[in-house]
Amino acid sequence: MSLTEPIIRIAAKGDGVTASGRHIAGTVPGDVVDAEGAITPGPHHQLPPCRHFASCGGCALQHADDDALSDFVRDRVLNGARGQGLEPEELLPVHLSPPQTRRRAGLHGLRTARGAVLGYREGGSHRVVDLAECPVLHPRLAALIAPLRAFVAAHGPKGMVGIDLTLADQGVEASLAHFPLEGLGPTEAALDFAREQGLARLSFDQGYGAETVWEPVPVTVTLGGVPVGLPPGAFLQATEDAERRILADAAAWLEGARMVADLFAGLGTFAFGLRDGRKVLAAEADQAAHLACKSAGARAGGQVLALHRDLFRSPLQPAELNRFDAVLLDPPRAGARAQVAEIAGSTLTRVVYVSCNPASWARDAAVLAEAGFRLTKLRPVGQFRWSTHVELVSLFER
């Protein structure tokens, strides 16, 4: 081994890697490490913007500048494709979400003898890092960290509390799990908290599912210009800017398609944005999301038709798929093995595939390629800024 080695890439879990295969945490391409592991920062090594970076498990790559971060996102996606023998005909520029744009957060709170701690868990640990800041969060979510900590300190149970925050049209929705409200005092305190903080909704899960205690007006999220009811815990893309980027790509790639099936549609994130000039079938298994999409679709003129269907157990069959000009699918991390097999056996010639897992996407892409589809366009997306979580939007044609 030479006395010093340059870092040439970032591995999937965020460690820098040398040509000899050494993994060095906290490094990026261009850094140099010696035999003892001492790091000489290179041109793409930046000062982490958050004081919690060394301990918090929420971010792994705050020491990487935007060039290194973009390269990491791109390479994760390309390596997934190439692992299945696929090469995109056109690789589009990486989209990186800016800081302070995350509109969803999952935090943990714990009452202590001195008050409470509230934040993310340490990497590989159950210990909660008590947040003083979070540069990835939208400012309206970050502003609730201190008030929530005080509320947990005053009224929280003995055990760990889960706190989910989502930015909706009306403000922030907060959902607290493992947080029993025992008696009139804590309930009134919860209502006062929601009122003082201007929350759009406050719900508690005391072991029987989310129960809303505060919602002055129905909470919605606007998708493709349509206000859609937002059920507690419903899935949203992590940032609005990434959602707009993915939707713009999908709309351009589906130009001319008059009948589109949006599979794993959720609330209708893409269905409502694609409805102009076409009919869209929005298929979703989650009942609450399906009903919200169905209701909004009826109010929006009927161009979006919601279908309640579990596409893992009952995928659309070729005879059903053949009625459409194109399909868009955005499955969970596990991918869409069963549905992709049916798409491969259909007469469809255009598929837009949005994915939050390059590995499962590549596996499904190989099935499409075997059925004659070409990977014509591919855009890597890094909406979970400074994390190792990578997403993408792709177009397959045959």
Give the helices and strands as they follow along the chain.
Answer: EEEEEHEEEHHEEHEEEEHEEHEHEHEHEE
CATH fold node name of the largest domain: Rossmann fold
Count of strand segments: 21
Rg is 23 Å
Class by alpha and beta content: alpha/beta
Unreliable stretches: none
Number of domains: 3
| Morphology call | flat
- How does the major sheet shape up? 8 strands, mixed
Notes on the structure:
The chain has 398 residues and is of the alpha/beta class. The protein folds into 3 domains: 1-45; 70-98 and 236-397, 3-Layer(aba) Sandwich (Rossmann fold); 104-218, OB fold (Dihydrolipoamide Acetyltransferase, E2P). Helices cover 25% and strands 27% of the residues. The chain is built from 9 helices and 21 strands. It has helices at residues 66-83, 139-142, 145-155, 184-197, 240-253, 287-299, 318-321, 337-344, 358-370, and strands at 4-10, 16-18, 23-24, 32-34, 39-40, 95-96, 104-112, 115-119, 161-168, 171-177, 201-205, 210-214, 220-223, 226-229, 259-263, 279-284, 304-308, 326-329, 350-355, 374-382, 391-397. The strands form 4 sheets. The protein has an 8-stranded mixed sheet with strand order 6-20-21-19-18-15-16-17, sandwiched between helices. A 6-stranded mixed sheet has the order 8-7-9-10-11-12, covered by helices on one side. A 5-stranded antiparallel sheet has the order 3-2-1-4-5, with no helix packed on it. Strand 10 (171-177), helix 4 (184-197) and strand 11 form a beta-alpha-beta unit. Helix 1 (66-83) packs across helix 9 (358-370) and helix 8 (337-344) packs parallel to helix 9 (358-370). The longest helix is centred in the N-terminal third of the chain and has 18 residues, at 66-83. The radius of gyration is 23 Å and the shape is flat. The N and C termini lie far apart (49 Å).
